[in-house]
Amino acid sequence: MFPEPSTPGLPTPDTPPDSSRLNHGPVPPWALATIVLVSVLLVFSCCFCLYRKRCRRRMGKKTQAQAQVHLQEVKELGRSYIDKVQPEVEELEPTLSGPGQQQVAEKHELGRLQYSLDYDFQTGQLLVGVLQAEGLAALDLGGSSDPYVRVYLLPDKRRRHETKVHRQTLNPHFEETFAFKVPYVELGGRVLVMAVYDFDRFSRNDAIGEVRIPMSSVDLGRPVLAWRELQAAPREEQEKLGDICFSLRYVPTAGKLTVIVLEAKNLKKMDVGGLSDPYVKVHLLQGGKKVRKKKTTIKKNTLNPYYNEAFSFEVPCDQVQKVQVELTVLDYDKLGKNEAIGRVAVGAAVGGAGLRHWADMLANPRRPIAQWHSLRPPDRVRPLPVP
């Protein structure tokens, strides 16, 4: 009649069992599949990470080896240029300063030059052999010179050849032959000039002396072999534009070319007050076209500005033979047009001092190579297309 008393903590027949107190049954299949899948993914991820790490080590070693190959190729390229070309003598008035030049001016002992002449009637070419020099004047402080010879036929001074530089000698043996394609009937009005210069990377090249031969006085019916005493080079009438010093640095592994414009000196006076406001434009040319442009700050009222400003260009290894760098010094004018004072170009297709500087840069990768260059008239520096 009366309900039975319930014991605390125990379910009564009318009370549903507590699920938290019951034992679970077997794990469902989908849970097992999930655990297995996650485990497989973790193992695969670990294996993939180890594989990528190993690949990166291999690629790093391979990239480093390729970088060394590029570095060696650029060095060899620079050495090949150095062997083939020599600095260009800018058409400026020869300097007569310094103890060596004063001694030359006083004693008039410049040395002598041996040369050969022959005319090839079949090809219409004049063959000029620069053989050797003897007893040259010593223009360096050490009592020697670094001579080389520039050869051209007046009145055309642009078509010229230069021998290699011979270091620290007053008796160089050149043994080089150059050809000028000139019709025989026109030779009588030409004058052959063989000018001997002392090369100086950090200053203007000094003229030692020259030999001038009117071709009308030469019998080309047979080969000519002769010695001639050097004579003092005449003063050039061309106006001095000044000099600029800059360094070149190329890093083959990064494909990076850096031009540091250091300073300029003795610039042409452009303003009424006898000074200038110079700045420098740096152009990167490819195929004769300007593709990149940088410029320095403007230096007010000076003919000897100091910049020390660096500019970088991306130039891959396979393009380093196809580009040129042109530096133009301009005079800033607030009210009018900025006038160009002069220009200089460096590159594989430039020739002369510009090619020499470029070759030194390639032969010494990752090192900045500084050199002075004489400015030339803006219309005399034209970009050359590189094949």
Descriptive overview:
With 387 residues, this protein is α+β, with helices and mostly antiparallel strands. It folds into 2 domains: 79-88 and 239-380, C2 domain (Immunoglobulin-like), CATH 2.60.40.150; 99-229, Sandwich (Immunoglobulin-like), CATH 2.60.40.150. Helix content is 20%, strand content 35%. The chain has helices spanning 29-84, 99-107, 352-363, and strands at 112-120, 125-134, 147-154, 156-162, 173-181, 191-198, 206-214, 224-229, 243-251, 256-265, 278-286, 289-295, 306-314, 323-331, 339-347, 369-374. Strands 5-2-1-8 form a 4-stranded antiparallel β-sheet, with no helix packed on it. Strands 4-3-6-7 form a 4-stranded antiparallel β-sheet, with no helix packed on it. A hairpin with a 1-residue loop joins strand 3 and strand 4. Helix 1 (29-84) crosses helix 3 (352-363).
Order of helices and strands: HHEEEEEEEEEEEEEEEHE
**Beta content:** 25-35%
Helix percent band: 10-25%
Number of helices: 3
Structural class label: alpha+beta
> What general outline do the C-alpha atoms trace?
elongated
Write the CATH architecture name of the largest domain. Sandwich
CATH superfamily of the largest domain: C2 domain
Write the layout of secondary structure elements.
Blueprint: H1 29-84, H2 99-107, E1 112-120, E2 125-134, E3 147-154, E4 156-162, E5 173-181, E6 191-198, E7 206-214, E8 224-229, E9 243-251, E10 256-265, E11 278-286, E12 289-295, E13 306-314, E14 323-331, E15 339-347, H3 352-363, E16 369-374
Antiparallel strand pairs: 1-2, 1-8, 2-5, 3-4, 3-6, 6-7, 9-10, 9-16, 10-13, 11-12, 11-14, 14-15
Helix pairs in contact: 1-3
